[in-house]
Every structure is written in structure tokens, then in C-alpha cells.
Amino acid sequence: MLELRLPPVIAPIQDSAHCRAVIQRAVDELGGIDILVNNAAHQATFSEIGDISDDEWEMTFRTNIHAMFYLTKAAVPHMKPGSAIVNTASVNSDMPNPSLLAYATTKGAIQNFTGGLAQMLADKGIRANAVAPGPIWTPLIPSTMPEEKVTSFGQQVPMKRAGQPAELATAYVMLADPLSSYTSGTTVAVTGGKPFI
Prior knowledge:
Blueprint: H1 16-30, E1 35-38, H2 54-75, E2 84-88, H3 101-121, E3 127-133, H4 140-144, H5 147-151, H6 165-176, E4 187-190
Parallel strand pairs: 1-2, 2-3, 3-4
Helix pairs in contact: 1-2, 2-3
């Protein structure tokens, strides 16, 4: 099995020129793009809309949805039929948490972006899907939530616990797999048993 390891690219993806440069580097070093996973996110917790600064709102959108658009727009011309795009939405796409207003709003936008993109790219043979995680333990959780919410994080789902990133990974693998060739425009929910419609 051939394993390619490239040094990570650290770039401010909120900027369209940097997103184009990241995609071009992947094309130059790997010869093309078969799978694009858009997974960057920013979130912060606020109890009142007045507490959300204009800069915070804009940064959330630039990180969560604008960067996804820029990266996808740059990648699609390099993708062949059979390629796949997997975007990270959230359970907040369907059930927005009011204390995560900006984040939840972008996640709803991601779900709509994915559905429209799947239709737009179907004639090119490129699939677009999303994964909607429920509560998953990532560094984002303790760094963006009050301690009392971190302590009870995940208790609200039927499994009564937060998931681990490894429990989420298989959804991305499934959507990227060429055997999922008839799956496009869908959102796979990984929510610990909480219904997602």
C-alpha cells in the first residue's frame, strides 16, 4: 500500500487566495484531488444575541462556510468523475442550539450548500454529502463551552455520552468510498441515537 505523507499546510482558510493555494499544492504534490473533506470550524458560546460581536459573527461564517465554498470551488476543476466531497455539518443543522447561534446558523448553511452542490455536480460525476455529528469530544468543546456544559456534554442524547472522533470517522470513509456511488446530497447523522430529520 502506498502511503503519502505531506507536511501540513497552515493557512488562514478564511481567505480565498489561501484556499486556492492549498488546493493547488495538493494538485501539484499529489497529482489531483479525489476526495475533499471540509472540516474546519469555529464556535463560541453566547447567551444573548447582543453579546455576539460583528467580528465574531463574521469570523464564524468565514471559517465555517466561506472557506468551504472557496476550497470546493478551487477543487472541483481538478476532480474527476467518481470523486467525492464530504462536508461537516452538525446536529445543529437540524436542531440549532441557541447558545451557539452563529455556529448553528453556519451549519444549517452547510447542509443547504451540500444539497445544492450535489445537484450541481451530479452531471460531472462528483458526489457531495455531509456528516452531521452530535456531541463529539474534540478540543473545541472544552475551549469554547462553560465548564458546567463541558461536564454534562453528551448527556442529552439517548446513549447518554459524547462520542469519540474515531466513532465519527467511519461515516466520512463511507461517503468517500467509491462504492457509495449512488449516495449524494445526503447528510449522515452520527448523533448517539438522537433523531435527525
